[in-house]
Design brief:
By secondary structure, this protein is an alpha/beta fold. The chain has 18 helices and 12 strands. The protein has 2 domains: about 25-170 and about 335-390, 3-Layer(aba) Sandwich (D-Maltodextrin-Binding Protein, domain 2); about 175-335, D-Maltodextrin-Binding Protein, domain 2 (3-Layer(aba) Sandwich). Helix 12 (about 280-290) crosses helix 13 and helix 17 (about 410-425) packs antiparallel against helix 18 (about 430-450).
């Protein structure tokens, strides 16, 4: 499956977050020297100041307000510095790392291997001791699946020392939404979304009969197809068999994979999909759902903020993707939306850690959720947030993500997989043909690695 660029959650910003590969050679070289921390040069230890770099334009006002509250509480000034868009931010972090000039706290938009490289270069503080203090009070307050994105286990493939190195400030996941008003028009119960695949098919057919489109999603951005396909695959065959496929032990021509592909064929054949879904970008899909042109949407938790901006009166609910009738649970993509790291060379490292502990406490998390409509990373803040966000939060127990998988698919196989499903939807390819193609391509790509 594909490593989706979740930007914080997923605006993955679930939606959208990875550093350019190969940027870290210079960082390794610089990481070997003595800590100098130019970002702290000339700073008086008597007048403490914590500098935080970020790229999150939608959270800037909330961050500034929280900085004022923290200074009033502790006397320590927190300076949030916004650098956007995310590409510009990435370049600034890369240059600062090479110059040993990172701020006290910063976010890293990168893949797991890039994260590990920053750690090995000495740019990230290990927070394990602080997380485990007081019988794990801080650690246990955060969603486990969000914390996992910032953690490296012993013997990890990236060679990073085991530990927790980041603090999630919000979380995200990708689920389905359903329009309650359109449900009413089709004679469906607005308080009971479909519970499984058969009910989903039946509801879409009733909606269709009422002249209402079924599912809309930005499947022109193929990672979203990849995401839903992996949801179905985990539910049909379970994680072990999915990972065995990624290792090359189970072929894509296996009957369980054909079942996955057939779900997309069925949705197309029974007119369950919105017109033009294969070429639709997610922004257009969000507009279609917000304007009530489709009854279902497949989208990330960031959409709560998006839909509010497009149509504040939109009446909708949250549901897991429809379960296929198996014993396996429904898994969804999710985890930390945005995270902050502490510069291991900061002269105010302890104060920076204390600030992040305060930032992720329930009161501050509830404020961030209310102000930005992002899911809080503190699970004890759920009771303090709007019901719609709380609905997304309930899905956090079901999340998985390629960043925490033990193995990922090869790039060319991912591309053929996603585009092949597009071909199935438009009738250019059968599920069996795609299974055979992927099996052959997988064998060819694995042979190149020998």
């Amino acid at each position: 499956m594909r490593n989706h660029k979740f930007q914080g959650f997923l605006n993955f910003d679930f939606c959208n977050l990875f550093v350019i590969c190969g940027l870290l050679f210079g960082i390794f070289l610089n990481g070997c020297g003595e800590p100098k921390s130019p970002s702290q040069a000339g700073r008086s230890l008597e007048a403490k100041k914590i500098v935080v770099w970020h790229w999150m334009t939608d959270r800037e006002d909330a961050f500034q307000e929280l900085a004022k509250r923290y200074e009033a509480k502790t006397g320590i000034k927190v300076v949030f510095e916004l650098y956007a868009p995310s590409d510009a931010y990435t370049q600034k972090v890369r240059a600062a790392a090479q110059a040993m000039a990172l701020p006290d706290v910063y976010g890293l938009l990168g893949e797991k291997r890039d994260f590990a490289a920053f750690i090995k270069a000495g740019h990230v503080a290990n927070l394990t001791a602080e997380m485990n203090a007081d019988q794990g009070a801080w650690k246990n307050s955060l969603f486990e699946k969000a914390l996992a994105v910032n953690e490296f286990q012993e013997g990890n493939v990236y060679g990073a020392p085991a530990g927790i190195y980041g603090v999630p400030i919000d979380v995200m996941n990708i689920q389905m939404l359903y329009n309650k008003n359109l449900f009413k028009k089709a004679g469906l119960d607005p308080d009971r979304p479909p519970q499984d695949w058969d009910e989903f098919v039946a509801d879409c057919q009733k909606l269709n009969s009422a002249g209402i489109q079924g599912l809309v999603s930005g499947w022109g951005e193929v990672w979203m197809i990849d995401c839903l396909a992996s949801n179905f695959a985990f539910n049909i065959m379970g994680p072990d068999k999915v990972f065995a496929t990624l290792r090359g032990e189970v072929p894509y021509s296996d009957p369980d994979w054909i079942k996955v592909f057939n779900l997309f064929k069925e949705m197309a054949a029974k007119s369950m999909l919105a017109n033009g879904i294969v070429t639709m970008v997610n922004k257009n899909a969000e507009q279609a759902f917000a304007n009530e042109r489709a009854a279902f949407a497949f989208n990330g938790s960031w959409c709560v903020n998006v839909y509010h901006g497009m149509n504040p009166a939109l009446d909708y609910g949250v549901m897991l993707p429809p379960k296929i009738k198996t014993q396996n649970p429904v898994y969804i993509w999710g985890g930390a939306g945005s995270s902050f790291l502490v510069n291991n060379r900061s002269l105010v490292k302890k104060d920076a850690i204390d600030f992040l502990r305060w930032l992720t406490a329930p009161e501050q998390q509830a404020y961030l959720a209310e102000a930005t409509r992002n899911l809080p990373s503190n699970k004890f803040a759920i009771e303090m947030i709007p019901a719609l966000l709380a609905g997304f939060s309930k899905g956090m127990e079901n999340v998985t993500h390629p960043n925490v998988w033990p193995i990922n698919e090869l790039p060319k196989v991912i591309e053929r997989f996603d585009k092949g499903i597009q071909s199935i939807i438009i009738g250019e390819k059968t599920p069996e043909q795609l299974g055979d193609e992927l099996t052959k391509l997988k064998a060819e790509e694995m042979a190149k690695k020998i």
